[in-house]
Design goal:
Converts 2C-methyl-D-erythritol 2,4-cyclodiphosphate (ME-2,4cPP) into 1-hydroxy-2-methyl-2-(E)-butenyl 4-diphosphate. Keywords: 4Fe-4S, Iron, Iron-sulfur, Isoprene biosynthesis, Metal-binding, Oxidoreductase. This is 4-hydroxy-3-methylbut-2-en-1-yl diphosphate synthase (flavodoxin). One of its GO terms (biological process) is isopentenyl diphosphate biosynthetic process, methylerythritol 4-phosphate pathway. It catalyses: (2E)-4-hydroxy-3-methylbut-2-enyl diphosphate + oxidized [flavodoxin] + H2O + 2 H(+) = 2-C-methyl-D-erythritol 2,4-cyclic diphosphate + reduced [flavodoxin]. This protein has 371 residues and is α/β, with parallel strands linked by helices. It contains twelve helices and 15 strands. Strands 8-7-6-5-4-3-10-9 form an eight-stranded parallel beta sheet. A five-stranded mixed beta sheet has the order 11-12-13-14-15, with helices on both faces. The radius of gyration is 24 Å and the shape is elongated. It binds iron/sulfur cluster. The site of iron/sulfur cluster has 12 residues, from loops.
């Protein structure tokens, strides 16, 4: 008799069409990707490329840049060609920049049907230009800039209004034979947002870009995004994600990656399994966990490190991890792959864990076990 199998994912992915955003596939069986957006002036090519390089290093897979002026449009070609990851131009208000972005070789263009006034008339030309270059379009509907017709019809940005706006716009492109489309329907309220994406998922096979818009400062935005993305991804809905935080974009990427890792949609990298501490703790768990996390920050191998305050759950968790410490009586029992390898005084726990983690990481790298 075998052990019952442990579910490794929450749901099968919704079946969506696959599109190609530069080198990154979105939808179909492609892994859910993480994206972010630069905060620099796009016309400042050096600063923008520098931020894109930082985003790339943090694990960002697709980057979006704003394009509100002609100077920004003029910078797109250089940025698109020098960026290590696909660049999406984000266009509001002015259709002429859509053509500029396509000409500049951007990997995709985001348009907002709610605020491009002459947009419907331009769809035929945009579809033609985008088809010729194989440039996908993201139809990005946003609660804050909903099409005036739909705002009038629904009274406010309801899930139905967001979905109708997106599908109407998509249908205009489809009329011209263009279906290389992904869609987002963002709202700042996770409940409205989740309902909108559920409806959209049921009514189409477009790949979906998830986002809670204007989610807020880092802590609140992280919670809102994690809850909303978690609800949808656990139902198999969502093909690419962008966490929006009032914080540096690298933070958005870290949160996005953690969400995917928590849902087993991406292989977990460094994972610290630490207890919350309680009246039984015999070491300062918070300090220990922080110091271990800081000492191992940036490690790219999938390593699970347990930091436990006492002998109740300590040895059990420490044994299950690649590496761990179970503390007691001012000492730490250091476990590697389930075996106690040594017992060290409390003052040596952190350095011993880091030393052992580096050895394991080195071995994993040799064995080709990368995240
Ligand atoms: Fe408390 Fe020990 Fe559990 Fe940590 S491992 S929460 S110290 S009982």
């Amino acid at each position: 008799l075998g052990m019952p199998s442990v579910p490794t994912k929450l749901a099968d992915r919704r079946v969506s069409r696959k599109i190609q955003v530069g080198s990154v596939a979105v939808g179909g069986d492609a892994p859910v990707s993480v994206q972010s957006m630069t905060t620099t002036r796009t016309s400042d090519i050096g600063a923008t490329l520098q931020q894109i390089a930082e985003l790339t290093a943090s694990g960002c897979q697709i980057v979006r840049v704003a394009c509100p002026t002609q100077d920004d449009a003029d910078a797109l070609a250089t940025i698109a060609s020098k960026s290590q990851i696909p660049v999406i131009a984000d266009i509001h208000f002015q259709p002429k920049y859509v053509f500029a972005a396509i000409d500049a070789g951007c990997a995709a263009v985001r348009v907002n049907p709610g605020n491009i006034k002459q947009f419907d008339d331009k769809v035929k030309e945009i579809a033609k230009a985008a088809s010729a270059t194989g440039t996908p379009i993201r139809i990005g509907v946003n609660a804050g800039s909903l099409d005036a017709r739909l705002l009038k019809k629904y009274g406010k940005a309801t899930p139905e209004a967001l979905v109708e706006s997106a599908l109407w716009e998509a249908s205009l492109f489809e009329e011209h034979g263009f279906g290389d489309i992904k869609i987002s329907v963002k709202h700042n309220d996770p409940v409205v947002m989740v309902n909108a994406y559920r409806q959209l998922a049921a009514q189409s096979d477009y790949p979906l870009h998830l986002g809670v818009t204007e989610a807020g400062p880092a802590f609140q935005g992280t919670i809102k995004s994690a809850v909303a993305f978690g609800a949808l991804l656990s139902e198999g809905i969502g093909d690419t994600i962008r966490v929006s935080l009032s914080a540096p974009p690298v933070e958005e990427v870290k949160v996005g990656l953690q969400i995917l890792e928590a849902l087993n949609l991406k292989q977990r990298r460094l994972e610290i399994v630490s207890c919350p501490s309680c009246g039984r703790a015999q070491v300062d768990v918070y300090k220990l966990a922080d110091q271990v996390a800081a000492g191992l920050d940036g490690l790219e191998v999938p390593l699970r490190v347990a930091v436990m305050g006492c002998v109740v759950n300590g040895p059990g968790e420490a044994r299950e991890a690649d590496l761990g410490v179970a503390s007691g009586n001012g000492k730490g029992q250091i476990f590697v792959k389930g075996e106690v390898i040594k017992t060290v005084p409390e003052s040596k726990i952190v350095e011993t864990l880091i030393e052992e983690a580096m050895k394991i990481a080195e071995q994993m790298e040799k064995d080709g076990v990368m995240s």
